[in-house]
Amino acid sequence: MSVLDNFDSWKTFLADKLEQAQSEGMGQETIDNMAYEVGDYLASNTNAQNNEEAVLQEIWSAASEEERQSMASAMVKLVQNQGNA
Predict the structure, then answer these.
(1) 62 lies in which domain range?
(2) H-type helices in the chain, by residue range?
(3) pTM score of the predicted model
(4) What pLDDT, in 10s, does the model give residues 26-48?
(5) CA atoms within 13 A of residue 47's CA, in its CB half-sphere
(6) CATH at 69
(7) 2 part of a folded domain
(8) What is the number of structural domains in the chain?
């Protein structure tokens, strides 16, 4: 099963990678930039595997670059907050 098959699995995967990046000393700006690159890659090169991904992919396609940066940053915050809940 791919981490893209289930949105909760995807968030857990991102949270694990975020924790790893932070433990290696990666700064927030670098993490946000990497999240942007991953989001851009996924939107351009993968098919949505569930409804949540389909919505995110449509929004990403309609968004400006600045809006995409904000979305990537928001996704990072989503998984950061998930770990603090």
Answers:
(1) 7-84
(2) 7-23, 28-45, 51-62, 65-84
(3) 0.78
(4) 999 999 998 899 889 888 888 88
(5) 1
(6) 1.10.760.20
(7) no
(8) 1
